[in-house]
Protein backbone atom coordinates (compact mmCIF):
# COMPACT_ATOMS: atom_id res chain seq x y z
CA UNK A 1 0.00 0.00 0.00
CA UNK A 2 1.32 3.41 -0.95
CA UNK A 3 1.66 5.82 1.96
CA UNK A 4 1.92 9.61 2.20
CA UNK A 5 5.44 11.01 2.34
CA UNK A 6 4.83 12.05 5.94
CA UNK A 7 4.83 8.36 6.91
CA UNK A 8 8.58 8.62 6.28
CA UNK A 9 9.36 12.26 7.01
CA UNK A 10 7.54 12.35 10.36
CA UNK A 11 9.50 9.46 11.81
CA UNK A 12 12.85 10.07 13.57
CA UNK A 13 14.91 8.11 11.06
CA UNK A 14 18.65 8.70 11.04
CA UNK A 15 18.57 8.94 7.24
CA UNK A 16 17.20 12.49 7.65
CA UNK A 17 20.59 13.54 9.03
CA UNK A 18 22.49 12.59 5.89
CA UNK A 19 20.00 12.85 3.01
CA UNK A 20 18.22 16.13 3.70
CA UNK A 21 18.97 17.29 0.14
CA UNK A 22 17.15 14.27 -1.35
CA UNK A 23 13.45 14.20 -2.27
CA UNK A 24 11.19 11.52 -0.82
CA UNK A 25 9.79 10.07 -4.02
CA UNK A 26 7.74 7.11 -2.76
CA UNK A 27 6.74 5.49 0.53
CA UNK A 28 5.18 2.03 0.75
CA UNK A 29 3.88 -0.19 3.55
CA UNK A 30 5.38 -3.64 3.03
CA UNK A 31 3.27 -6.81 3.50
CA UNK A 32 5.70 -8.17 6.10
CA UNK A 33 3.94 -8.58 9.47
CA UNK A 34 6.26 -9.47 12.31
CA UNK A 35 7.58 -8.80 15.76
CA UNK A 36 9.67 -5.92 17.09
CA UNK A 37 13.04 -7.47 16.18
CA UNK A 38 12.28 -8.81 12.70
CA UNK A 39 13.89 -6.13 10.54
CA UNK A 40 16.99 -8.29 10.27
CA UNK A 41 14.96 -10.91 8.34
CA UNK A 42 13.52 -8.34 5.95
CA UNK A 43 16.95 -6.86 5.26
CA UNK A 44 18.28 -10.35 4.58
CA UNK A 45 15.41 -11.10 2.19
CA UNK A 46 15.76 -7.84 0.25
CA UNK A 47 19.57 -8.12 0.11
CA UNK A 48 19.33 -11.65 -1.31
CA UNK A 49 16.91 -10.39 -3.96
CA UNK A 50 19.22 -7.52 -4.90
CA UNK A 51 22.30 -9.77 -5.09
CA UNK A 52 20.50 -12.29 -7.29
CA UNK A 53 19.23 -9.58 -9.64
CA UNK A 54 15.54 -10.22 -8.97
CA UNK A 55 13.61 -7.29 -10.47
CA UNK A 56 10.12 -8.20 -9.35
CA UNK A 57 7.71 -10.61 -10.93
CA UNK A 58 5.13 -10.53 -13.66
CA UNK A 59 5.50 -9.73 -17.35
CA UNK A 60 4.97 -5.97 -17.02
CA UNK A 61 7.65 -5.60 -14.38
CA UNK A 62 10.12 -7.81 -16.26
CA UNK A 63 9.60 -5.88 -19.50
CA UNK A 64 10.00 -2.52 -17.77
CA UNK A 65 13.26 -3.57 -16.15
CA UNK A 66 14.54 -5.05 -19.41
CA UNK A 67 13.75 -1.81 -21.25
CA UNK A 68 15.39 0.27 -18.51
CA UNK A 69 18.64 -1.72 -18.55
CA UNK A 70 18.73 -1.70 -22.37
CA UNK A 71 18.26 2.07 -22.47
CA UNK A 72 20.91 2.47 -19.79
CA UNK A 73 23.37 0.45 -21.85
CA UNK A 74 22.59 2.35 -25.07
CA UNK A 75 22.79 5.80 -23.46
CA UNK A 76 25.65 5.09 -21.09
CA UNK A 77 23.61 5.81 -17.94
CA UNK A 78 25.11 2.93 -15.96
CA UNK A 79 28.73 2.90 -17.16
CA UNK A 80 31.45 2.27 -14.64
CA UNK A 81 32.62 5.63 -13.39
CA UNK A 82 29.09 7.07 -13.22
CA UNK A 83 28.08 5.67 -9.85
CA UNK A 84 28.82 5.87 -6.14
CA UNK A 85 32.37 6.78 -5.08
CA UNK A 86 33.30 7.72 -8.66
CA UNK A 87 31.01 10.44 -10.03
CA UNK A 88 29.00 10.62 -6.81
CA UNK A 89 30.33 10.71 -3.25
CA UNK A 90 28.82 8.03 -1.05
CA UNK A 91 26.41 9.04 1.68
CA UNK A 92 28.65 7.04 4.00
CA UNK A 93 30.95 10.08 3.85
CA UNK A 94 28.22 12.07 5.63
CA UNK A 95 27.58 9.60 8.43
CA UNK A 96 27.97 10.75 12.03
CA UNK A 97 30.54 8.77 14.01
CA UNK A 98 28.09 6.41 15.70
CA UNK A 99 26.59 5.28 12.38
CA UNK A 100 29.97 5.08 10.65
CA UNK A 101 31.31 2.85 13.42
CA UNK A 102 28.17 0.69 13.52
CA UNK A 103 27.04 -2.02 11.09
CA UNK A 104 27.08 -0.98 7.44
CA UNK A 105 24.54 -3.57 6.37
CA UNK A 106 24.80 -6.50 3.96
CA UNK A 107 27.14 -6.81 1.02
CA UNK A 108 24.97 -6.38 -2.08
CA UNK A 109 27.38 -8.06 -4.46
CA UNK A 110 27.75 -6.76 -7.99
CA UNK A 111 24.41 -4.93 -7.93
CA UNK A 112 24.31 -1.14 -8.33
CA UNK A 113 23.37 -0.83 -4.64
CA UNK A 114 25.72 -0.37 -1.67
CA UNK A 115 24.65 -0.50 1.97
CA UNK A 116 25.08 2.77 3.88
CA UNK A 117 24.19 1.74 7.43
CA UNK A 118 21.96 -0.63 9.39
CA UNK A 119 20.27 -0.21 12.76
CA UNK A 120 17.67 -2.22 14.69
CA UNK A 121 14.81 -0.32 13.02
CA UNK A 122 16.22 0.94 9.71
CA UNK A 123 18.54 0.08 6.85
CA UNK A 124 19.63 2.30 3.98
CA UNK A 125 21.32 1.47 0.69
CA UNK A 126 22.27 3.75 -2.19
CA UNK A 127 22.86 3.58 -5.91
CA UNK A 128 23.86 6.14 -8.49
CA UNK A 129 24.27 6.61 -12.22
CA UNK A 130 24.16 9.45 -14.74
CA UNK A 131 20.49 10.14 -14.04
CA UNK A 132 20.08 10.00 -10.25
CA UNK A 133 21.55 9.34 -6.84
CA UNK A 134 18.93 7.23 -5.05
CA UNK A 135 18.45 5.78 -1.58
CA UNK A 136 16.31 2.79 -0.65
CA UNK A 137 15.34 3.15 3.01
CA UNK A 138 13.78 0.19 4.79
CA UNK A 139 12.25 0.92 8.18
CA UNK A 140 10.52 -1.28 10.75
CA UNK A 141 7.41 0.33 12.20
CA UNK A 142 4.44 -0.48 14.46
CA UNK A 143 1.48 -1.60 12.38
CA UNK A 144 -1.21 -0.11 14.63
CA UNK A 145 -2.51 -3.47 15.84
CA UNK A 146 0.24 -4.56 18.21
CA UNK A 147 2.64 -5.91 15.59
CA UNK A 148 5.25 -4.49 13.25
CA UNK A 149 5.86 -4.35 9.51
CA UNK A 150 8.34 -3.04 7.00
CA UNK A 151 8.14 0.34 5.31
CA UNK A 152 10.09 1.29 2.20
CA UNK A 153 10.94 4.81 1.14
CA UNK A 154 12.72 5.82 -2.05
CA UNK A 155 14.70 9.06 -1.88
CA UNK A 156 16.20 10.61 -4.98
CA UNK A 157 18.50 13.39 -6.04
CA UNK A 158 18.23 13.86 -9.82
CA UNK A 159 21.39 14.62 -11.76
CA UNK A 160 20.39 17.86 -13.50
CA UNK A 161 17.67 18.19 -16.15
CA UNK A 162 18.31 14.68 -17.49
CA UNK A 163 17.65 13.16 -14.08
CA UNK A 164 14.52 15.25 -13.53
CA UNK A 165 13.16 14.26 -16.95
CA UNK A 166 14.03 10.62 -16.33
CA UNK A 167 12.19 10.52 -12.99
CA UNK A 168 9.10 12.13 -14.52
CA UNK A 169 9.14 9.72 -17.47
CA UNK A 170 9.32 6.55 -15.37
CA UNK A 171 6.80 7.61 -12.72
CA UNK A 172 3.68 6.05 -14.27
CA UNK A 173 5.52 2.83 -15.04
CA UNK A 174 6.67 2.49 -11.45
CA UNK A 175 3.09 2.63 -10.22
CA UNK A 176 1.61 0.46 -12.99
CA UNK A 177 4.13 -2.34 -13.10
CA UNK A 178 7.13 -2.14 -10.82
CA UNK A 179 5.82 -1.42 -7.34
CA UNK A 180 2.72 -3.69 -7.44
CA UNK A 181 4.87 -6.62 -8.58
CA UNK A 182 7.54 -5.83 -6.03
CA UNK A 183 5.03 -5.68 -3.17
CA UNK A 184 3.51 -9.04 -4.17
CA UNK A 185 6.93 -10.62 -4.43
CA UNK A 186 8.11 -9.30 -1.05
CA UNK A 187 4.89 -10.44 0.65
CA UNK A 188 4.96 -13.93 -0.85
CA UNK A 189 8.59 -14.50 0.05
CA UNK A 190 8.03 -13.14 3.58
CA UNK A 191 5.17 -15.62 4.11
CA UNK A 192 7.16 -18.48 2.58
CA UNK A 193 10.04 -17.81 4.99
CA UNK A 194 7.80 -17.45 8.07
CA UNK A 195 8.40 -20.99 9.34
CA UNK A 196 12.16 -20.58 9.12
CA UNK A 197 12.05 -17.33 11.09
CA UNK A 198 9.99 -18.86 13.86
CA UNK A 199 12.49 -21.65 14.61
CA UNK A 200 15.67 -19.56 14.62
UniProtKB/TrEMBL annotation:
InterPro entries: DUF2867. Pfam families: DUF2867 (PF11066). This is DUF2867 domain-containing protein.
Amino acid sequence: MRLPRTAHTDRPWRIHEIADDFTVEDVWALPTPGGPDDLVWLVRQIAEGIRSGVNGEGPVSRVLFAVRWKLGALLGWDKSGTGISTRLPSLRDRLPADLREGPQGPDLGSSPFTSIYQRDDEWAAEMGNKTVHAVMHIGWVPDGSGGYRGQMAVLVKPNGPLGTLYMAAIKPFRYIGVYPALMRSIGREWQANAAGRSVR
